[in-house]
């Protein structure tokens, strides 16, 4: 039976313009930009130049200290900009998608039965860069084993999208992802959910139901109320969307970079 945590502190701000529960619209972007500042703790070293052709999963840059940590391309296309700011800081890499923007590198996902191979798959695909280590909320260093792993299964922020409809048909992929994560820690994997969530059927995790207002969906709040980080401890966090990306990679050998975005707010004519 899932543990229930009731939070009283916080606030759900009532804002008009919540996304309607309708089928999403597929949009092909004119350009994509990958921003190194989104990957806290990484000092990027660029692996591409303007004019290079890339596929989904191609390496764009790696971390100067831990060179195995890479960030990969979310689309197939041509690198049309390597933009630098003051003191040559890398601000973004711009990619113009090709006609077949989904052309992807295939990763080897068979026979992953130990920690080393599980870690290497996440590193090679770029999904490792989506994990976060607490304390400091940085990309974890390769080789470190976390005490526990925390998965946030919902977003409690105002006007945040509801991922239930996207996740509910994908429980098999989520279970595959959990089995991979189990190879990376000797501790537990905690999954924070709302009451009635489809994620209650995910196996091999310890479910924790959070009741109460925002910021109930924040990883730090969930860790504090389940098993706080003590001196010398490190834990990892990820959201359910990243968990699904791992599961799809294991199922297909290809990186899935589709992103669900909620266009919301009182100024939006048809929020969705």
Notable traits:
13 strands; alpha/beta; six-stranded mixed β-sheet; four-stranded antiparallel β-sheet
Question: Could you explain how this protein is built, in words?
Answer:
With 272 residues, the chain is of the alpha/beta class. The protein is built from 5 helices and 13 strands. The protein has helices spanning 115-125, 164-167, 171-182, 219-226, 240-252, and strands at 3-6, 32-34, 44-46, 53-54, 59-63, 70-72, 77-84, 90-97, 132-134, 149-152, 189-193, 206-211, 235-239. The strands form 3 sheets. It has a 6-stranded mixed beta sheet with strand order 1-12-11-10-13-9, with helices on both faces. A 4-stranded antiparallel beta sheet has the order 2-8-7-4, with no helix packed on it. A 3-stranded antiparallel beta sheet has the order 3-5-6. Strand 5 (59-63) and strand 6 (70-72) form a beta hairpin. Helix 3 packs across helix 5 (240-252). The protein is globular. The mean pLDDT is 96.
């Amino acid at each position: 039976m899932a543990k229930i945590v009731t939070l009283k502190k916080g606030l759900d701000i009532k804002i008009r313009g919540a996304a309607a529960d309708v089928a999403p619209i597929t949009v092909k972007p004119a350009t994509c930009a990958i921003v190194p500042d989104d990957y806290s703790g990484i000092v990027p070293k660029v692996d591409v130049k303007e004019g290079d052709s890339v596929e989904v999963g191609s390496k764009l840059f790696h971390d100067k200290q831990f060179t195995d940590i890479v960030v990969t391309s979310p689309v197939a296309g041509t690198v049309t900009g390597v933009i630098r700011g003051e003191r040559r800081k890398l601000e973004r890499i711009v990619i113009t998608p090709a006609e077949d923007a989904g052309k992807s590198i295939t990763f080897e996902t068979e026979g992953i039965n130990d920690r080393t191979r599980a870690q290497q798959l996440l590193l090679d695909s770029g999904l490792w860069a989506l994990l976060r280590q607490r304390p400091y909320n940085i990309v974890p260093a390769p080789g470190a084993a976390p005490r526990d792993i925390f998965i946030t299964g919902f977003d409690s922020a105002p006007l945040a999208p509801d991922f239930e409809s996207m996740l509910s048909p994908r429980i098999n992929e989520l279970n595959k992802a959990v089995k991979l994560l189990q190879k990376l820690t000797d501790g537990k994997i905690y999954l924070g959910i709302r009451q009635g969530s489809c994620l209650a059927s995910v196996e091999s995790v310890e479910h924790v139901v959070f009741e109460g207002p925002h910021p109930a969906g924040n990883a730090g709040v969930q860790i504090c109320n389940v098993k706080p980080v003590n001196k010398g401890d490190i834990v990892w966090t990820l959201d359910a969307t990243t968990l699904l990306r791992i599961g799809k990679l294991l199922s297909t050998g290809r990186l899935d970079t589709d992103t669900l975005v909620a266009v919301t707010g009182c100024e939006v004519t048809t929020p969705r």
